[in-house]
Amino acid sequence: MHIVNVFEKDTIVAPATPPGEGGIGIVRLSGLKAEEFLCDYFSPSSATGRLESNYLYHGFLKDHRGHVLDEVMAVIMRQPRSYTREDVCEIHCHGGGLIVRRVVDLFLRAGARMARPGEFTLRAFLNGRIDLTRAEAVIDLIRSRSELASNIAINQLNGGLADKIAFLREKLILLLAEVEAAIDFSEEDIEIEGSCSLGKTAGQMMSEMDDLIQSFECGRIAKEGVNILILGRPNVGKSSLLNSLLGEARAIVTDIPGTTRDTIEEDLVLGGLPLRLVDTAGIRHTEDPVEAEGVRRARSKIEGADLVLLVVDGSMSLDNDDLLAIDACRHKDVLVVLNKADLGSLPFPDCLGQFPVVKISALQGLGLTDLVDKISQHFTFRPEVSEARETVILTEFRHKQALMAARDSLGRFRESLVQGMSPEFSAVEIGEALDRVGEITGETTPDDVLDRIFTKFCIGK
Ligand SMILES: Nc1nc2c(c(=O)[nH]1)N(C=O)[C@@H](CNc1ccc(C(=O)N[C@@H](CCC(=O)O)C(=O)O)cc1)CN2
Ligand SMILES: Nc1nc2c(ncn2[C@@H]2O[C@H](COP(=O)(O)OP(=O)(O)OP(=O)(O)O)[C@@H](O)[C@H]2O)c(=O)[nH]1
Ligand SMILES: [Mg+2]
């Protein structure tokens, strides 16, 4: 996609509802000719004259030959009172793949262009209705899989992050003004006293930025979910564990060691925590090339795991393959799952002493609540669901990066004061911090970054 400029003349069209059957399907138009296109094909059943903005009208949509396509409801939202701040029309037709497709085709034939992914929201951004953090929140909200993630997105959509950034920008601008005053009025360095108070302000801002930067860890988890890897030698019950946590027979379970080959990934929410569970092939030495590939895949997942559930058969003593599995995850956060508790248990092996342990029976569904609690406890830094509505939490790596760069600039600014550098030099660092902070809300974001953000959207948003 190419970022269009604010004077984009195309009128765009796209289905706003997902493909497939539904109660109603919505087709949306935005641009200079949206109203003209609608009025060419829509006959309201009772209204006469010009349709009023933001009123929903009943009527019939007719194709270019005058044949009725569908009985619909339609609305015009004249600029700037619309999502994109351009003229927007919506046609609420019957929900069905074919009918929605026909309505879209009608407007394409009339001269509208198919909207690119995220293009409605892009226009809302380019036309100044929302800043970039709100645009990003729109897609986060659509994609959110947990209450926590959606609360964070709603807060961001309401401007929580944008307000914080605006606040930081204001302070930076004040700081810059003071430094520039020093440039104008003095040949020398900034006065010692002034330099002290400027340094203090910079320090305060740095710590505000640090708080935001630190919230990212939690935001990332809320948005993407934690990666939980199920690891262990063959036949200990890894797939049984996956199935019992999912509550369905997702993975094949047999008593033959080496049953699972491919990694099996499933997203779910446990105890309010969104997570991705990955079941893997049992770790062991094997001559079978297919199983060996499975083991390689299992090992390749270890690096990216936030937590490893190391499954062992609690009713048997550890063997060499168990030791291989233990060794494979020695650098990771591990929770030992002693499975098959229904078969009785041996004393807990010493070599696992350093790990937290939970006893379960995947077969009988025993101990699962305890397991879920232990997993939740491991991710203690996540906020409460309700708290997320009021607290600003970063979920974009892009935001974190920009804030880190801004904080580093402020650090150099402070250093330059201590070293008694010329105010011109110090001013450059504040300017740099301003640019970085502006990237977050979109004031100074490069086009290729905007491109990347909006192409992640779905069609019709
Ligand atoms: N039918 C429908 N439902 C929808 C949307 C939509 O576009 N159409 N939305 C989007 O996809 C979301 C709602 N978001 C919206 C945000 C702003 C405006 C809007 O027109 N804002 C004007 C002021 C409106 C007024 O004063 O009445 C503005 O900000 O200037 C519309 C929808 C979710 N539901
Ligand atoms: N008694 C008992 N048997 C279990 C339990 N969990 C799993 N099993 C049995 O152990 C065998 C192996 O289970 P799987 O879930 O396939 O084991 P796995 O670790 O995925 O095995 P691979 O895919 O070969 O690595 C099956 O016969 C299961 O029914 C349990 O808690 N108690
Ligand atoms: Mg398995």
UniProtKB/TrEMBL annotation:
Quick one: which residues bind GTP? 235-240, 254-260, 279-282, 339-342
Q: Where does Mg(2+) bind?
A: 239, 260
Chief subcellular location equals cytoplasm
Might you give the EC number(s) for this enzyme?
3.6.-.-
Which residues does the annotation say bind K(+)?
A: 235, 254, 256, 259
- Look up the record and name the cofactor or cofactors this protein needs: K(+)
Family membership:
Belongs to the TRAFAC class TrmE-Era-EngA-EngB-Septin-like GTPase superfamily. TrmE GTPase family.
Residues in TrmE-type G domain copies: 225-380
Query: Looking at the keywords, is Nucleotide-binding present?
Result: yes
Annotated Pfam families: MMR_HSR1, MnmE_helical, TrmE_N
**Alphabetic keyword roster:** Cytoplasm, GTP-binding, Hydrolase, Magnesium, Metal-binding, Nucleotide-binding, Potassium, tRNA processing
UniProt GO molecular function: GTP binding; GTPase activity; identical protein binding; metal ion binding
**Cofactor binding note:** Binds 1 potassium ion per subunit.
Q: What class of enzyme is it?
A: hydrolase
Which InterPro entries does the record match to this protein?
Answer: G_TrmE (IPR031168), GTP-bd (IPR006073), GTP-bd_TrmE_N (IPR018948), GTPase_MnmE (IPR004520), MnmE_dom2 (IPR027368), MnmE_helical (IPR025867), P-loop_NTPase (IPR027417), Small_GTP-bd (IPR005225)
Q: Does the keyword Zinc apply?
A: no
Binding of (6S)-5-formyl-5,6,7,8-tetrahydrofolate occurs at 28, 90, 129, 461
The name on file for this protein is tRNA modification GTPase MnmE
GO terms in the biological process aspect are:
tRNA methylation; tRNA wobble uridine modification
Summarize subunit and interaction data from the UniProt record for this chain. Homodimer. Heterotetramer of two MnmE and two MnmG subunits.
Relate the protein's function as given in its record. Answer: Exhibits a very high intrinsic GTPase hydrolysis rate. Involved in the addition of a carboxymethylaminomethyl (cmnm) group at the wobble position (U34) of certain tRNAs, forming tRNA-cmnm(5)s(2)U34.
The record's subcellular location field reads:
Cytoplasm
Q: Which GO terms describe its cellular component?
A: cytosol
